[in-house]
Amino acid sequence: MSTLKVDNITGRGSTGFTGSVKSEGGNTTTDLQQGLAKVWVNFDGTGTIAARDSLNLSSLTDIDTGRYQINISSVFGNNDYAPSFTCGFEQTAFGRIVCYDGAFTTSVILIRTSLTTTTEDMPVITGNTHGDLA
Amino acid sequence: MSTVILDTITGKSTATTITIGSTPVVSASANSMTIRGEGTAQTSIQQGLAKVWINMDGTGTIATRDSFNIASITDNATGVHQNNSTNALASDNFTCVYNTGNGSGASNDATNPGTGASASHPNTASQAVFETFDENGSNVDREYVGGSWHGDLA
Q1: ipTM computed for the complex
Q2: Rg of chain A in Å (alpha carbons)
Q3: pTM, rounded to two decimals
Q4: How many angstroms separate the CA of residue B122 from the nearest CA in chain A?
Q5: B81, B69, B82, B74: which is closest to B151 by C-alpha?
Q6: Pairing verdict, β A118-119 and A67-72
Q7: Which of A31, A35, A72, A112 is deepest in the core (most CB within 10 A)?
């Protein structure tokens, strides 16, 4: 066995480390940076909205009933990232939905939660976002 | 302080562990690399990675704005889209979540994924088919469509 004792390991050049890992099946590799969620959040969208836990979240804004603005701390490199969100409600007789509520910016995601045509505040809203950080 | 600058770190064996102090930061066995989580548990790097993500325009001649591991996209019908991956997953039992919306945010859209059991919209190891609906339950094409897949790559 060999042991290397250091304080920092740095990739060459200005880009730091980029990397890939072997797939679960062992037949290919997959990119680390591209596969990482750059934002995730679990928040209560009722009353005074509040994040229960999050990654790379700056703040949440309650725009209107069932309409939320997710503000990102470390911004994306463009507006072409991919948020994936879902929501829950205690009374589960009808499914609630999440949709995008307008175009993204590098630091803002707008979502809307509703039951068919009626926007509703939801107690559990969760999501993650993949894309290229700036 | 010491710094090592290099291109590649390779373990001498198939199961290599990198530790800082006495804490295992990364340990690897065949096709599985784990990293210590925020607490004390280890979590799989491979399992935590999205295997596909996409931001696409589902209107007109549909087009990908940005993506990862997407080979192509197919416009099957109004409000029915298919995403085809470059590197296939190991089975059709992966998770995929999609959302849609228009630029003005004026509609309450729903997005339903296909399933492997669906005869009309089957997911396979390399494709996901999903439908987008407006607030009246009618299939509709939307300007903003985004989603991601998690699961086991082949």
Answers
A1: 0.82
A2: 19
A3: 0.84
A4: 20
A5: B69
A6: unpaired
A7: A112
